[in-house]
Amino acid sequence: MRITSKLFYAIIILFIFNSAIAQTSDAKAQQVVDKAIEVHGGVHFQQSKVSFNFRGKLHTVNQDDEGYVYDRTFKEDGDEIRDVLDNGVFKRFINGDDSGKTKRQLSRAFEDVNAVSYFAMLPYKLNDKAVIKTYVGEVEIKGEDYHKIKVTFEGAGSGDSPDNVFYYWFNKATGFMDYLAYDKGGNRFRAAYNQRVINGIRFADYVNYAGGDFKSKSIATYDELYNQGKLKELSRIDLEDIKVTKIR
């Protein structure tokens, strides 16, 4: 069949339109996440500077609708190290001087700064532009009912790992994000504990689980494995000395 120029452009337009639809969060998932953000802190996420200690390193988070700056400082071999991730641009300073090293050279540091701050500020980050949210359904975990949401990412604006997949479980009664799972650097499942509100924002610590003998299974099934007691505790994710300072 001979494709005319008009038909060719029509196909291209249809392809672009369908792609746009495929990368849009569905209404139910968006509704669940919006409620979660509200009960976790709402506008306080955009009006505050957050700092906390994680495993001996001081992290600071500044963010609003226009972007973010993640900052981490610590001592290493007598030097003061400061890592700054400013809207995707990463720099390391040693004793106040720019180290001149690239993000590629410091890829592990970049990933650590990004991941620690990102997880600490959930669920607020789930409304980033690159996030695609899909409602999976209702499930029961430890006798309580949850909304299960799948999260994927568009390539642009999603960091260095747009192919990552996350799952989040939001308590139907409270709206709180009590569980999450991800496949970045190995399958993991996190269960929240020690949830507390500090100056308007709800924070949580997490028990971090690995798949144990079931590590090859999809993280989509990790809620079932957790119910069955088949996941293996790997570590604890504890945020210490949290401070929330109003900036507006």
Describe the structure.
With 248 residues, the protein is an alpha+beta fold. It has a single domain (25-246), classed as outer membrane lipoprotein receptor (LolB), chain A (Clam). It has helices at 5-22, 27-40, 107-120, 222-227, and strands at 48-54, 57-64, 67-76, 79-86, 89-94, 97-98, 131-141, 144-153, 166-171, 177-182, 188-198, 201-210, 232-237, 240-246. Strands 6-5-4-3-2-1-14 form a seven-stranded antiparallel sheet, covered by helices on one side. A hairpin with a 5-residue loop joins strand 10 and strand 11. The radius of gyration is 20 Å and the shape is globular. 26% of the residues are buried. Mean pLDDT is 87; it is low at 5-22. It comes from Roseivirga misakiensis. Residues 1-22 form the signal peptide. This is Deoxyribose-phosphate aldolase. InterPro entries: DUF6503.
Topology, element by element:
Layout (H helix, E strand, L loop, with lengths): L4 H18 L4 H14 L7 E7 L2 E8 L2 E10 L2 E8 L2 E6 L2 E2 L8 H14 L10 E11 L2 E10 L12 E6 L5 E6 L5 E11 L2 E10 L11 H6 L4 E6 L2 E7 L2
Antiparallel strand pairs: 1-2, 1-14, 2-3, 3-4, 4-5, 5-6, 7-8, 8-9, 9-10, 10-11, 11-12, 12-13
Keywords: Signal
Protein name: Deoxyribose-phosphate aldolase
InterPro entries: DUF6503
Descriptive keywords:
alpha+beta, 248 residues, 7-stranded antiparallel sheet, 44% strand, single chain, 4 helices, 21% helix, outer membrane lipoprotein receptor (LolB), chain A, globular
- Largest pleated sheet: 7 strands, antiparallel
| SSE-based structural type | alpha+beta
Low-confidence stretches: 5-22
One letter per element, helices H and strands E, the order comes to HHEEEEEEHEEEEEEHEE
Determine Rg (CA atoms, Å).
Answer: 20 Å
The number of domains: 1
Tally of extended strands?
Answer: 14
Strand arrangement in the largest pleated sheet? 6-5-4-3-2-1-14
